[in-house]
Amino acid sequence: MLAFVVTATVVMGATGALYLLTEQHEEYAHTFVRTGVIVGAIASCLMLYPTGDNAAGNVAFHQPVALAAMEGLFHSAKGALLAIFGQPDMRNQTLDNPLVLPATAGPIDCSTARRSASVGATNRWMMPAPISKPSRTA
């Protein structure tokens, strides 16, 4: 529901901005921009907390492997690094060229009081065997 409100406020603000740029319906344009910005800011804050925080807590509690995958963790660690991005190397179970934030359990689950907790990792679950090419026999 909140995602719809945020999307609607962007459309409303954009419509108001278009009206202001084309100098049409100026009274409505000011109302559209003002309402879009104010309601959009409130709805965006509500998306972050409490609704986004609750969703992250559910993922951390019920799907620790999904959380580890989102944070780029192959091995369990206490106060694990958060990888913003990086290319996964499945053979060595590392991230190549990572951009990391140190000493956090990750912003995804930091509000669930797990900052210093041990964060589970994807290596606790069995990795699928690599797919081999079929052999051709005559």
In short:
47% of the residues lie in helices and 14% in strands. With 138 residues, it is of the alpha+beta class.
What is the general shape? Answer: elongated
> Total strand count, please?
4
Q: Which blocks of ≥5 consecutive residues have pLDDT under 50?
A: 105-109, 111-116
Number of helices: 3
Helix content: 40-55%
Encode the helix/strand succession as letters: HHHEEEE
Q: What portion of residues belong to β-strands?
A: 5-15%
Count the domains: 2
Q: How big is the Rg?
A: 23 Å
Q: Ends: how far apart?
A: 60 Å
Note the quaternary state here.
Answer: single chain
Structural class from helices and strands? Answer: alpha+beta
Spatial order of strands in the largest sheet: 1-4
User: Mind summarizing the main beta sheet?
Assistant: 2 strands, antiparallel
State mean pLDDT (0 to 100 scale): 79
Structural write-up:
The chain has 138 residues and is of the alpha+beta class. The protein has 2 domains: 2-62; 64-124, no CATH class. It has 3 helices and 4 strands; from the N terminus they run H-H-H-E-E-E-E. The protein has helices at 2-22, 26-62, 64-70, and strands spanning 77-78, 82-89, 94-101, 118-119. The strands form 2 sheets. It has a two-stranded antiparallel sheet with strand order 1-4.
Q: Mind sketching the topology for me?
A:
Elements lengths: L1 H21 L3 H37 L1 H7 L6 E2 L3 E8 L4 E8 L16 E2 L19
Antiparallel strand pairs: 1-4, 2-3
